[in-house]
């Protein structure tokens, strides 16, 4: 393994000069810096992270806890976090909570024992008080934390979240303007964070706009939603519009409708939520609310690394608006050139 001593011998300078040049420190001539970097690259020099960690008391590692790796919702967030971490010289350790609050708590403990410099949290389900207490314990120990999830709010750590309310209101107004009267909302299971937060906002918006929807509760995977939608549409083929709590549920509805010979959008309109990439690949494409997941991951990770580098515990809250992505499953009438739902 090539060391800075090997590079120093090759260039004809001291190891201290090589170290300063590679770390952007000291008053070294540009010509010498370039020569050192050229030799380091030619000799395939790789910095020794463990040695650097001992010197700086940092591991240059970030932990991330996600609600479920299998859920497509989290994939753009994970990608964005990984990209920003790599750009700043940090490794990413990913923990899958598998939609379980005990596993989420255990993930916090494991990341703490690994000595990570910071943790980003993106769950999408309820956690208990011990989880929040553990976050405060981590912060007190010097580990920085940023939450990307509405279900993990609290005092003492920063939050980066999407703003969904305006887009929910706008898509519901479009449903009302389209004269759809037989509207069904397929939400997640009763008692889940998704149902009590996003689902409740959808219900309230529908009622506020003069629509009395039928409410169904389902698992949020494509297969579970397909079973729920198939059973319902078999008995209620007069349904004109289905609002889905997320895009996987919308996809399940599409499969069920196809099996029953119900044409979308000619006989049934459909709207999803989250802006998953597959909504642009279906036939017809799915109208959905685009949650800025990559932007959340990028800004949240940049905030985390800023707090790590500067050793600050800011409690900054960043709110990022959603936008509408019109597909073929439901044609919306949007006034003027309005494309972004601002609150």
Give short descriptive properties of this protein:
15% strand; 44% helix; four-stranded parallel sheet; 12 strands; 12 helices; 343 residues; alpha/beta
Topology:
Elements: H1 4-11, H2 15-22, H3 30-42, H4 49-56, E1 61-66, H5 75-87, E2 91-96, H6 101-114, E3 118-122, H7 129-140, E4 144-147, E5 159-163, H8 165-177, E6 183-187, H9 193-208, E7 214-217, H10 222-235, E8 241-244, H11 247-260, E9 269-271, E10 288-290, H12 293-310, E11 317-321, E12 323-325
Task: Please report which band the strand proportion falls in: under 5%, 5-15%, 15-25%, 25-35%, 35-45% or over 45%.
Answer: 15-25%
Structural class: alpha/beta
Order of helices and strands: HHHHEHEHEHEEHEHEHEHEEHEE
- Structure annotation, total helices: 12
Residue-averaged pLDDT, rounded?
Answer: 89
Q: Count of DSSP E strands?
A: 12
Largest sheet, order of strands side by side?
2-1-3-4
**Terminal residue distance:** 55 Å
Major sheet attributes = 4 strands, parallel
Helicity range = 40-55%
In short:
With 343 residues, the protein is α/β, with parallel strands linked by helices. The protein has helices at 4-11, 15-22, 30-42, 49-56, 75-87, 101-114, 129-140, 165-177, 193-208, 222-235, 247-260, 293-310; strands at residues 61-66, 91-96, 118-122, 144-147, 159-163, 183-187, 214-217, 241-244, 269-271, 288-290, 317-321, 323-325.
């Amino acid at each position: 393994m090539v060391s800075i001593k090997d590079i120093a011998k090759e260039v004809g300078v001291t190891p201290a000069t090589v170290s300063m040049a590679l770390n952007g420190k000291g008053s070294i001539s540009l010509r010498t810096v370039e020569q050192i970097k050229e030799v380091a690259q030619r000799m395939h020099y790789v910095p020794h992270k463990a040695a650097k960690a001992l010197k700086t008391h940092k591991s240059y590692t970030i932990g991330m806890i996600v609600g479920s790796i299998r859920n497509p919702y989290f994939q753009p967030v994970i990608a964005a976090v990984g990209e920003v971490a790599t750009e700043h010289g940090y490794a990413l350790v990913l923990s899958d909570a598998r939609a379980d609050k005990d596993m989420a708590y255990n993930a916090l403990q494991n990341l703490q024992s690994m000595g990570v410099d910071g943790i980003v949290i993106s769950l999408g389900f309820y956690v208990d008080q011990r989880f929040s207490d553990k976050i405060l314990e981590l912060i007190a120990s010097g580990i920085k934390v940023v939450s990307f999830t509405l279900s993990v709010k609290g005092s003492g750590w920063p939050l980066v979240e999407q703003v969904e309310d305006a887009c929910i209101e706008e898509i519901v107004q479009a449903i009302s303007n389209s004269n759809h009267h037989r509207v069904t909302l397929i939400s997640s299971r009763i008692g889940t964070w998704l149902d009590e937060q996003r689902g409740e906002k959808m219900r309230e918006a529908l009622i506020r706009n003069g629509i009395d929807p039928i409410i169904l509760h389902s698992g949020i995977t494509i297969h579970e939603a397909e079973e729920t939608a198939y059973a319902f549409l078999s008995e209620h083929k007069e349904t004109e519009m289905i609002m889905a709590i997320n895009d996987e549920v919308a996809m399940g509805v599409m499969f069920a409708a196809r099996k029953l010979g119900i044409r979308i959008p000619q006989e049934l309109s459909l709207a999803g939520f989250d802006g998953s990439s597959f909504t642009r690949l279906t036939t017809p494409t799915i109208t959905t609310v685009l949650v800025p997941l990559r932007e959340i991951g990028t800004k949240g990770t940049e905030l985390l690394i800023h707090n790590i580098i500067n050793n600050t515990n800011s409690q900054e809250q960043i709110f990022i608006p959603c936008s509408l992505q019109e597909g073929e499953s439901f044609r919306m009438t949007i006034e003027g050139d309005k494309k972004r739902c601002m609150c």
